[in-house]
Structures are given as C-alpha cells and as structure tokens.
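Sequence in, structure out. Go.
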Amino acid sequence: AVLLFDDIDVERLEAFETPTTFPTITPSPTVSPTQLCYQNFARNADFESNTTQYWHGFGNPVGITSPGYNGSQFALKAYDRYRWARGASPWQHINQICVGDGSTWRFAAKFKMYDQETGAPITTCDPATKKNCPFIRLLSRFGWYNEWSLIYDTDMVFNPDGWSSFSVDYTIPEKHSGPGLTHFIPMFIGGPYASVLVIDDVELRRLDYQEIPTAAPSVSIAPSSSPTVFCTKNFVRNPDGEFGTRAYWMGWGNPVTLSATGEGYGGTGYALKAYSRNSWHRGLAQVIDYSCLDIGSTWRFQAKVKLYDETSGAGITVCDPTVKNSFLCPMVRLLTKKYTVNHWDIIRDHEMVWNPNDWNTFDVMVKMTEKNAGPDVTWMLPVFVGGPPGSVLLIDDVKIERLEVWETPTAAPSSSMVPSAAPSVFCTKNFFKNSDVEKGTTRNWYGWGNAIAIDDNPGYGGSGYAIKAYNRNSWHRGIGQFVDFSCFTTNVTLHWQAKVKLYNQTTGEGISCDPRNTFSLECPVIRLLTMKSDGSRRWDLFHDWDMPWDPNGGFNNFDLKVSMIPENSGDDLTTFRPFFVGGPVGSVLVVDDVSVTVIDEPADKILPPAKTCRSVGDPHFVSFNGTRFDNHDISWQTLFEKGKLKVEMEHVPFPRREWIMINNAWRVSYDGQIVEQGEGGVVPSGTISPDGLAGTLDIYDPFFVRIHISYHRRYYNAYITTQHYEDATGLCADRGIVNEAPLFPENPNISEEEANAACADVAGTDAYEDCVADVRLVDDEALTEEMVSNAKEVVATEAVIEEIIQSSTEVQNVNQAEEEAMVQQAPPPPEPEEDDDDEEAEIVVADDSVVISTTKENEVAVQAEGDAVAEAASGVNGDPVIMGLRNQAFEFSGKADTWYSSVAATTFQWNMKMHTFENCVGQEGMYVTSLGLSVDKKTGGSHTVLISVADENQVFPGCPPGSPCLGDGSLRIEIDGQTFLEPGDLKISDDLRIVTYNTWSACSRKWWDYDNAVSAREDFDYLNSSEATERRLGSSNSFLRKKRELMTHVDPLEFLLNSRENMANPVMCAEWVELRSANKDLFLQLGGWSTIFIETPHVSFQVEYRQINRGNIETEQGG
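Output:
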C-alpha cells in the first residue's frame, strides 16, 4: 500500500485553544513549561536498567559493569579507548530551546578509572593540571558544521581507589547556542591511554537562576526559543576583534588580519583589516545565521569603516558616498543562497559622511525580499568591500541585526539594496577569458580528454598567439572554458564568434570540410554542456552551417547568433561549459579571438533535429512529422521540394496486381535541371557516404539534404534525411493522411494471421505493419519472401541512417567513466590575474563561483578559528589534515599501512601511505609515513621518488659516526631506485631537483595542528643556535606551491630563505638562517626533523618530516 501525507501540522495549543471537554485518553506533559528546561536530560542516568540504552561510545564500545556508585547495581563503562577523545556519549535529544546563550548548565557524574589490561586503578589523574583526568567534550552542531569546547573540573578531589565526583556549572557561550542548533551533546572522555572509564549517576541539567552560585540576577534567564530572543541579537560574531583574534572572519580572495593594538575605533583595541586587495570586491566576510531571514523583515547593517592606501598609508579621498553605483566607498555585498542558486545584493550608505583620515559610520536599514529571504535560504554571507584597488579596508564594531516592527522606519530607508551586476555594465562583456591568448598562456582554457597548448604558428591576422587542441582521438575532443553564466537569463540570445582552423597533426596539412553538411562533424562546432540546480544536464551542438571554409587559407570565421532555450539558460544554471570541437581524428583544432556576448538581436537560424522521411514498398510513407500513410497515385509524385531542390518518385502498378503501387523510378532536380535519375535498378552513384551506405546523394546548396535510394528486385525504396524540412512541400512534408489504405482481397490466399507470422522477424519495428500489409496485398506465397526481405532491408537501412544522425549529435563508443569525470569536474581556483584595464568589468563575478565554493568548504575551519578564544582550541587533533588545491580542508581517516592517491594528473602522480603508531600515547596515532611521486620526463618515461620512514618501529636511530643523515637516521629517499640517506642538493636531471636538509621546529613550515604538541629535538641537535624556547610538533605534510619553473640554478640556501614567510616562527629561526648562510653548512646540520624541496617542471613540493620524542610524549595530556 502507498500512504500519502499532506498539510502536516504539529503544534502546541495555547490554553484558550484547548477543548474544554477532553478525550477519554489524552497525553499530558511530563513537566510544565516552566520546568521543561530544568529536568535532567541524561536518560538512563544511573544505568539501573542494566542496559546501555541512550548511550553510545565515541569510536569505542560501551557496556554495563557492576557494581555502580554507592552500592547500586550497575554503571556504564567505556573501554578499548586508545585515543584520548574516546569515551561515553549520551547521544540523545536535549531540547535545543533550553540551550540559551548565557544559560548555566550542570554537567556532573560519578566516575572511576582503571587500566584495561591489568585492572589496576589509575593514579596519575591530576585535576589541577588537567592531566590524565576525565573531562567533557561538548559538541554543538548547527546543520553541517560543529562547535567544540572542553570542560574540566579543576576543583575535583580525585580518589584513585574508588569513585570520584565530577561537577561543573558551565555558562553556555554564544557559539554553542542560537537558532540552527540541531544537536547539543556532552561527551565524557579523557584519561590515560587504554584506560577504562566508568561513570554513574550522570546529571545534565540547566540550572534555575536561583541555583547559580553567583549573585542571582533580578530577572531569570528565559529559554532562548522566542523569536524576540533569537532574532534581535547581533548576528556577527567577534564584531570588534577585541578577543585579539580574527576568529569567524575570512577574506574574500584576499588575506585578513587584526590591526595593531590601539588602531581600533576610538583609538583603542583592535580592528579587522582586509589588505592585498586587487579589486573593490575583495574584503572581509563572515557566514552568519540565516534562520531569522524572513521575507519582508528589516535588517540593519552597522560598522565603523576606514580606508587607506596600502603603500603610502594615506587616507582614501576618492570615496563619495553620494555617487550612485560607485565602488570607491565601503559597502556590504550580501550573498544569500537558496540551495544552489546564489543571489547578490549591494548595500550602500549614500548618507554616510566621509572623512578620509578617520573612522566613518556605515549605517543602513534594508528590507529583505523574496529573492534574498525566506525559508528556502541555505546561506547568508555579508562581505564588507569597496574602495579602490590597493586600498586597505578596516572595520570595527560591526553589527548586523534584524529589527523589530516598532524599530522599522515608517518611511522607506534612504539607502536600499541594488543589484550588484548592472546588465548595462556586466552583461555586455565577452564572457570568455584570455580569449585571444595574447599573454602566451593557456590560462582559463581546458581540454576535454586531450592536450592543449599555445600553437606554434602565429595567431589570427599574424598576431602573437593562438591556442590549439591536439592528441584528439575523437571529434568531441577539443578546448573550452568554464564560463560565467550570471547574465544568461532564460531564452537569452548569445553571439558566438571565433577564428578557427584545422590541420593534420602528423603532416601539418590543412583539412577540408563542408560546414553545410550538418550530419558531419568534420568541421569546427561548439559543444555546450549546461547543468541545472535539479541535477539535470544537457548537451547542445551549434553548427555555423553557412561558414565559408578554406582549408589552406588560414583562419575561418565562425559566427553564430543563438537563441537559448529554457533547458540551457535561466537562473537555475549551475554549469555553462562551451567547447570548440569537431574535425577528424588526428586533427589539430586551433582557435583565436573567441567571444560569447549577450545581444538583443534576432538569432540565426538554428536547425532543428534531423528527421527522415521514407517511401517504401506499396509505397508506404512516414513523413518528417511521423505521419504514416500510403499513396497510390499513379505517375510522378513529389516527395520533397524546397527552394530549387525537388525529389520525385514514379508510381506504377505492381505487375499483374494493379491494386498495388510501387516506386518504379526516381529523379532529383535542381533549379529545373535533372541532377540524377534512375530506373531498372540504377541508384545514385555520385556519392557513397562515409558510413558505407551505397546509393546516397548529398545536396548542399544552400542547405543540406541527404537522399538515399535502394533497389529491391523490382522497385525502389527512398529515404530523405534533412534538418531543413520546415516550409518544405511534397508528400514527405504533408501532415495529414493522403490516401486511405487500400482494400485487401476479399477471398485471400494468405490470411492476416499468416501474414503476421511471415513478418515475425520484423515484429516490434517500424516496418512491421507495412510488411504485413504488403504480404496481404500481394497475396501470393511465391512473393511473400520478397515482401519480408524488403521489410528487413528497410529496418537495416533505417538503423544505419539513425546511427548516422546519432553520431552527428552524440558521442559514441567512449569511456563513460572518463566522460563522467570530466562532466563532474569543478572549476579550479583562478590563477593569479595580470593587471588588465580591459577586464575591469569582470570584477563582480569574475571568480566568485570559486570563492563561494571554497568559502563554504572553509567555513568549518574559519569557525574553528573562533575556538582560539576558548580553552579547547589549541590546535587540531586527529588524523592527517588535508587542505586541497581549492582550499577544502578535512581530516583524513585512512586505513593503516595503505597507499592512497593524493593527486593524479597526466604528468605526475602523488601517493601517500598511512601508518598507525599504537604507542603514541595521547595522540591520534595515524600519520603519513611514506610519499611516492612519479613525474614525467621531457624525453619520455618518468622519474620515481619515494620518501619514507626507514623503520616505523624505531625513533631517532642515529647517524653513522661523523656523518649527518636525514631525520637522525630515520628518513630515506629513493630516486629511480637509488637510495639517499644524507642531506644534499640532488640534481637528478633537467626534470628533477631535490634539495633536503635537517631543520628544527621554529624553521619548519607551520601547519594547522602545529601548535598542539611538542618538538622532540634535543639541544645538541641545534648547531650554532640559541636554546629553543618552545618545541612543537605537527604531523608530516606537504603542499603544492605555485612555482612551476624548475629552479635548477638557484643556490640551495635560497630554498631556505624563500620559505621564511611560512615558517612556524620566523623570528626565532632568523639567527639559525643567518648562521647557515654565513657558514655555508646547511647540509651539515644534525637533527630529527627534515625539510625536502622537490622541483619539477610540472609540480613543486615542500615536504616536512617530523618525529616525536618518547620522553616528551609521556609528559603530554593522556600519558
């Protein structure tokens, strides 16, 4: 059975809405609304049910143990805990209404710990230093991202031989509360490695204000569910940077930081700073809660703002807030997202009084509309932008709030949102980037399963460059771009232009083609991939069928105006990827001066899909529009006529059966002159199609029509295929039934059942009914086989014709997985742009699609930076952290002793192997211990590089006497089968150079989890260096650098000097760097940490190798 639901409504009624007469059975609340938030939310809190119901492990199992606390029968134990973050979690519902910002919660439990292997009690717990003691890891989840905090009871009295009491009254900070909260989960964790944690009598409860130990407030804290509480707060976190961190703020294609102390508004504290801004739309962004973003609600955007020149420090004087559509003043660029559709608004304060040398007040109220508000909003991101390129934007005291009705002005605000992309400015540009490749790079261009490069020959008109697609094994291989589709509204007309040519890759000879033949893909065409927010995708082919073609005269002019359709245009587009394709296998396609623009002009004639009309047998017709009929008119009949072209067939009676008509002869005429004709078995001889279909005649001028004539024993079958059937005349173009079907013999020799059986081989095909009709009409067993044979020939011929049509529009016989991977390819981050005056109009959405996607992925990391103000956020704990080429970040939980592919490209492959160190007490234990790299050589073949831990069971094995070695003997490098154990400059070939040396913590490259542990190096490891003040550890990592030139002539010290910007502590490292430069002893340094630079023409790596000292690790939290 199918069960349908609609109009679902579950609500709590007010008292006055409740019926006075209750049903005989009614559920009653277990607690009154005033008590709702003050109950114990820990269900099965004492475990006397002898079950683990409502409780779960966190990467470990949990079970029931006996006895419990104070003589009770049962308690809960968490065991097999080989990582500090393992424990017991009440993964059950805690009413989010009660989790109000500023509310106080009591987290309490009885606990004890013992060693899982020996059963001995744990004695090393020290609550004052938080070492080896249980604590709570609090998780708040807001949809798809998490907030974490660690909660310790430093006043706890620890009893190693019995039960101890954990009890903390914790005030909920803003980051753990508010609208959008979906989970609120405290987890009991902590204690030494491999210890069992036992808990009982758990209490998870919000305190009434009278229970809070501090002075009771005059007004209690109410549950935070009311909209008046949720929606009237400042939605900006860390609005003034006064925490001393830029937590929650991110750049928008530019870096952000804090100003110096005292540079904030009013001359005190901090401000937030966006710098290195190459465009007005670079700035400071923060993802904020959108749950109150209702249609019609009024929002107020406030901030103190300031602009100054980054080079000179002078205040920006060109800002005039009264000028409309100016980008020279600070403003808010608001992005709201509804699932996959982005909407941009610009919010300007035209009444702001501008002082170039001081702080200014930005204050605007705006009313939200259906476009940027409503229940379907999935993202809200304001970006503070504005100001000329090269200016620094400072903001402070930022406030974004939703106003109550009584706060909203009765008159419309003087400033309101305006679209951020005026069509007059942004939608008349060329949407192809690097369209003439005059910079000599392939930037923004991509192949489709083939290579691309700058062509060896001059560009169009003798200009500097053109771009080519080569190594093409199919017509659909080519060259294209990800194109900005923000202006491609439904049914927009686009003007496509390019200079194109084809030549043979082996011989260099020009390739002949006829653009008028739209069944052929031997000429350049545009293949367009569009995708929509509902996941649908569409392919279109655009032929410039009247393009003059000269194979040897240089470039040809592709020029086509196309009216798009709803299926490939509109606001729900998510991908728009045009590719120039076409040409025979082995041809090189060259393009130059490419453009696509939005125009308000009539479109060129875009041809409809090809269709075939046929006249076979009796003769039976299927017209272009699919109408089936018979025609028994005698003499010459016109099948197709358009323009000067005319195709005719002669109808005569079947011998000795005058009630049957056949095609006896044919003729094709042009402008009144016979082009070809035939009877008695003569078929067209002038053309045999590339598909091997004999008897084919192609007519081009001015449009393309393919005529196929076949002869079957005593009559002809005719097939006419074209895209130019509109406005044509003749039997093939008729849309009604011309003649009714003839009458069958009254006393037949062959019954209908016998005719059906005879035609069984073509049953299910389009020719079956015609076959049955012909067998019954001929009514002669001697001729039955001839009729059936003709039907089979019709089926086979139409299959070939259909295949020709299909192959002219669809890709055949390809690796579908490979094609799907290319379809799903995401646009990579834009490479650094050169200064281009003529590209100024692209600033609005030139690369926002990339910034949006990476911002979404970075949001977790940016939110995590907010934890820097909390006790818990000393770094990232966990398996290797990976930051992708598009800045996406995630923890990778791999399988131990298994190789994984990190990057696979046509010119190189980078793999890495994970290994779990079981004895890394207090650590996650999973690290990268081997890196494998295969890089193509210019001369063919490839180099192989393996960097690996020599012995995963041994730390600091030591070096041979008198000789430095990598990683104190624990690291080895294999290059093309040869092993290297010592630091040095390894110039393997023109394609590969490796520079490696030992280093120490301050000079190692910083990394996300770098601050979370301790360096293992001993003092004797630092030659000629001052004593290290703090030693830290981060996991092994590598990163891809933007540099692509092979630095074969650079002094090895330059690698060290050029890496200073990203060092963990450049100041502390400075003396060490100076000594290495002065003494020229970089490769003589000892130590357990190493840095490896790998330079190739295709990719560059910096690999940091680190290891931890067993003595140090025993002093860390967790043992």
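Check: The chain has a mean pLDDT of 79. The two ends are 59 Å apart (CA to CA).
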